[in-house]
TrEMBL record:
GO terms for molecular function: alpha-amylase activity; oligo-1,6-glucosidase activity. This is oligo-1,6-glucosidase. The keyword Zinc does not apply. InterPro entries: GH, GH13_cat_dom, Glyco_hydro_b, O16G_dom_2, SusG-like_C. It comes from Salipaludibacillus aurantiacus. Belongs to the glycosyl hydrolase 13 family.
Amino acid sequence: SQTKQWWKESVIYQIYPRSFNDSNGDGIGDLKGITEKLDYLKQLGIDVIWLSPVYKSPNDDNGYDISDYKDIMDEFGTMEDWEELLEAAHNRGLKIIMDLVVNHSSDEHAWFAESRKSKDNPYRDYYIWRPGKEDGSEPNNWDSAFSGSAWEYDETTGEYYLHLFSKKQPDLNWENPTVRQEVYDMMRWWLDKGIDGFRMDVINFISKVPGLPDAPNPEGKKYVSGSQYFMNGPRIHEFLHEMHEEALKDYDVMTVGEMPGVGPDEAVNYTKEESEELNMVFQFEHVDLDSGPGGKWDLRPLSLKDLRDNLVKWQKALEQDGWNSLYMNNHDQPRMVSRFGNDGKFHKESAKMLATLLHMMKGTPYIYQGEEFGMTNVQFEDINDYKDIETLNMYREKRDEGVSHEELMKRIYVKGRDNARTPVQWDDSKNAGFTTGKPWIQVNPNYKEINAAAAVNDENSIFSYYQKLIELRHQNETVVYGSFDIMLNDNEEVFAYKRELNGETLLVYCNFYEDSPQVEIPAEYQQANKELFISNYELEDTESNKFTLKPYEARVYRIR
Ligand code: TEU
Ligand code: CA
């Protein structure tokens, strides 16, 4: 069943604070910088802000390695700054959800400092320690998402600890009920401050298969993915339901679980209301379509058919039960206009077309900072201009294996996470108005043409188009709660679908290329009176039942 909920009618805006806006000239974005931009976000029309982590952190993984869950990262400001941001947001009718990173902590967290002291330390079992194999090697053959082994040897106690990500991100032991209670207490501590929910980092990794067995390794690699033993593990639903009962159920909040490796059927189990687990999940299938068997750095061409088949599968699977999140951008993914659109000749048209595709679908749309005015991927010549641990670890590992600098830069240009982490381009002044100091990462040189200031006052800008899409979602129940059915399912160039609710129909046409394909309105609607709902072009003819789409044209009709 699907009841009406505020978070189903909302548009959510993700802020990666480090790169959003620097208020004190140290080159690093901060909380006061966010507060300065709340009117801009209000003007865009979004409802909820998802803040990537702002907790104390050594920033090995830019805040996704937390050393104190109840205090603010020095670079971002103080708890007072955070309270001020929350109040200023709420005063504008904006909600704030926080990033919950509890699959792992930082190795500088007090819990880990204790845990590593001795095998009988009360905090020992807050983390996952194992002796090495007979020959002294790691307890199993799993690799880390950030290269190398998922295990790090610790001299003090002569054992290894598990870290699915960097060695400074030890996995917490969710089998330990005390760890779970610590997490629930911390969640309630933030909820009592008045936040409006959580985005939960790799939350489907927290239940590991007992025994942590070696993964099959047919090619005899040094390390292999152990994901089958920690994705959607045996106790995951038990833990998430317990979290609902112990921390969430008494608050009117929303939750979205980031779930690499989740499929549609599992997603229904996580998000259907009867489960009392999560409201939504971030799935990764559509953003893995351009990855080969070797993972994200194994580049694979993307086809419209692949993308359409996947998005349709998810729309249909969660149409009656559960709820979709709709995204193509975040701080881990390359910029969508560069990846799925055309960031050159048809930059504006394709950005608007992709936005139409997502925002007219069923689910809650997520906008990542800068997407709303078309920020693009970046290409730094020098590997030292890259800051992301995932990229740098991969570069070093592959260079050691003999892969050329040029080949690696090609892969980084297409898939590197720093594509999404260059400073938000506010205007065409120095450093794009992001900072008066030296930015922690270089600004994308195209900021002179692509920036918020130029967009906000231009009625033909991508920003203005996002404003319209958001307004349509706020005004129209068919966009939010309507059914979904694909149209033109074998068309090589056009992604077309329809939404229906209470006799109102929306017909959505998105041309994914620069050709000019002709399409025809379905026979059943040819006599009905069509009005144009939105388009990324000024259209002469909106009456005909047959029409030709311009390059990257998006066109939505409303029939009622
Ligand atoms: O990402 C989870 C995750 O799987 C990512 O590593 C993603 O698959 C990969 O980056 C794609 O290149 C979450 C956070 O969003 C990410 O920023 C963190 O690095 C990671 O967890 C560890 O906390
Ligand atoms: Ca700053």
